[in-house]
């Protein structure tokens, strides 16, 4: 999960601004694998909408689409533009991480950090006083290695990740836990989280030290970004002089709450 997010964040660096004038980028991914209808995307909340993915054939290096994606990809641009003529539609190309040598190092460091984690971790934490697995560390590392801040967009995740606590009484951030909870591998869309919180009448906690929301339910611990975390992250991106933000993935929002919070 974390490696996927990082890869997507890296992919998002491929933005180019067509004019010298810097505009605040409010980008979001729509993935063909989601069942969310393209006409329902609120394009007005974004400057860029990115259709995912085209792939590269490893043997002849040509771009290709999966046949089942073709009809979506061919209509994506005109459909999102009909709701907001100013939005820039983009096609995202899935690249293997192998060739980004420097990035690969950072990627490996993250993976090592994750693999050695025996406690739940707020996978999208902006800060983490006790480890380097956090967004702020990653951004500072990029800038230190020579990437201008104004070429970076901050990745925002519209999903959370669930863990099973070893002891449900020990449930703060960093509590001992094993991966997976509630469903499958533990990954939950923000929309599913909101419905879950509502049906069990749970109030999530916002922790401003880490910039993460979480809730516990029995022995389940779920970390995610609610509107507070999203607002704080967008404020951070502006403070750092970044180019904007990039959402993975737009259909996981709940009533557009996160996109509205981010866009303010
Ligand atoms: C990526 O490209 C570099 C040179 O440009 C090459 O040495 C390296 O083997 C490539 N890595 C992979 C995983 O293909
Ligand atoms: C990739 O390229 C090879 C060689 O041209 C071709 O045989 C193969 O069908 C291609 N695969 C895809 C998925 O396009
Ligand atoms: C956030 O959680 C950490 C770890 O439990 C705790 O030390 C810290 O005080 C919390 N921050 C806030 C603002 O509550």
Automatic annotation (TrEMBL):
PROSITE patterns: GH18_2. Residues 1-20 form the signal peptide. SMART domains: Glyco_18 (SM00636). Keywords: Hydrolase, Signal. InterPro entries: Chitinase_II/V-like_cat (IPR011583), Chitinase_insertion_sf (IPR029070), GH (IPR017853), Glyco_hydro18_cat (IPR001223), Glycosyl_Hydrlase_18 (IPR050314). One of its GO terms (molecular function) is chitin binding. Residues 1-264 form the GH18 domain. One of its GO terms (biological process) is carbohydrate metabolic process. Pfam families: Glyco_hydro_18. One of its GO terms (cellular component) is extracellular region. This is Glycosyl hydrolase family protein with chitinase insertion domain-containing protein. It comes from Artemisia annua (Sweet wormwood). The lineage of its organism: Eukaryota, Viridiplantae, Streptophyta, Embryophyta, Tracheophyta.
